[in-house]
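Continuing the batch. This is chain 6 of the set; chains 1 through 5 are on the previous pages. Same settings as before, nothing changed between runs. Recording input and output for traceability.
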Amino acid sequence: MIVLLVARADAREIHENDRPVREQFVDITTVIDDVVLDMRYATKDNFTRKAVYPKSVCKLRSAVAKRLATAAALLRAQDRRLVVWDCYRPTSIQEVFWKLVPDERYVANPADGSRHSRGAAVDVSLADMEGRAVAMPTKFDDFSARAHRKHALAGKRGVEAKRLSDAMTEAGFVPMPTEWWHFDAPDAAKYALSNAPL
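Output for chain 6:
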């Protein structure tokens, strides 16, 4: 049985003037022109085995998108293109995931919110300059110990995952220990949860 492992979002929000930040969302293709969109939840190639997004689009808060563009530029200099698997996720879809796996060890409780639902988290991978996926330690939605960073970034198998991680952390993202593909903006908690449509 495949189980979704998603970091539980911090229930506390950082406020500016006592309000969560509601910075606008931007389509990542307007910020990174060579990004490879492979939005897994718009396809059946994910842990639910069905398309849960109505379309394939990656939206992020504008400051987060700019940070991701920095990572993409660092990777481009190494002959790699950024692949995005998941970005902003409406809270209603987070609720669908919670109904499937109502276990806070694996899925962020919608009552607390997911960093994806704040538009401040991304699931990413790498492709070569022609847009062909490069070999990574595991597939997306491999929620086993093999996908944990301490294993996934080790040795020859982890070369590309480490390349990705180095670029993302240099751009300021915070990696998730149990998913080599998941990165949060460092200030993710300050953004308001959203259920705006994709």
